Amino acid sequence: MAGLTSEELAFFKDNGYLVIPGALSPGVVDELKKETASLLDGFSLEGHPMTRFTTAGENGEDEKKHKERLSSPSTSLHLSLLTQPFTDAFNSAGALIRPKSLAINKIGHALHSLSAPFRSMTLSQRNKAVAASLGFHDPRVLQSMIICKQPEIGGAVHSHQDSTFLYTDPPSAVGFWYALEDANAENGCLSFVPGSHKWAPIKRRFVRCDAGGTGFEELGEGQGDGVKERFGGEAAEVGEKRDKEFVMREVKSGDLVLIDGNVLHKSEKNTSGVSRWIYTFHVIEGERRYDERNWLQPTEAGFSSLNEV
């Protein structure tokens, strides 16, 4: 199974992201959407923590007190109900005022382990070949989830770097972001700062707090870089983030977007009347240190290995 072409690999190394059109066939997309709809319709609200997912803080900082996430990683489907500061899915009494299937933000974080259709698509020869093209020796899959940017309430996700949340030493995460529906300017497609992975080190990591819950831990001097190791003399001088540097990339259903863990990216609010469903998982280098401080922890079996596909 072929991985990336030399042209695709060069674009990814230069820009920190890559769009691969038509990576999933229409039949596979339909199967995954059917499974997603079944999960959205089938879960019960009874006993659900009703976690209110917000994206108002940079790098998701408003979520840091949600202790429910600690039990979600690889043991159960984590269903996070989406609310936003301006267009809530709840009323003032805390009752859900939208159909549950239109209020869910996320289904995760071990979808490839718990759902047969997503497991088949994720642990595939194609993804294994792509990971090999990117230089992974021991590619490990983690944080697999559906993100439903719901019509009208799907909020903006501010500029962030994925390796903040999936930290290895040095950083190694790459996101595999599959569009199950068209993603455009109206319903919240991704935007990137091209090349920022070459000058933007990871300055903090998302960890389990000793007092419970989760929060951010600042990294020391020289930690979280990995830029010089990967790019050597090609690494640019540290730049200043400016909104005008972001480049928006609209994609079609079935397209794959690869996202370097250091590249700055974001998405805008869904202002349209149509949803934006995507399936994403991340790959980290199993040969890098991934420690017990990270908020997301594997089961006893460890994170899934693409080398075993």
Automatic annotation (TrEMBL):
Its cofactor is Fe cation. GO terms for molecular function: metal ion binding. The keyword Transmembrane does not apply. Keywords: Iron, Metal-binding. It comes from the Eukaryota. SUPFAM superfamilies: Clavaminate synthase-like. Residues 52-72 are annotated as: Disordered. The keyword Nucleotidyltransferase does not apply. Belongs to the PhyH family. This is Phytanoyl-CoA dioxygenase. It comes from Tuber borchii (White truffle). The lineage of its organism: Eukaryota, Fungi, Dikarya, Ascomycota, Pezizomycotina.
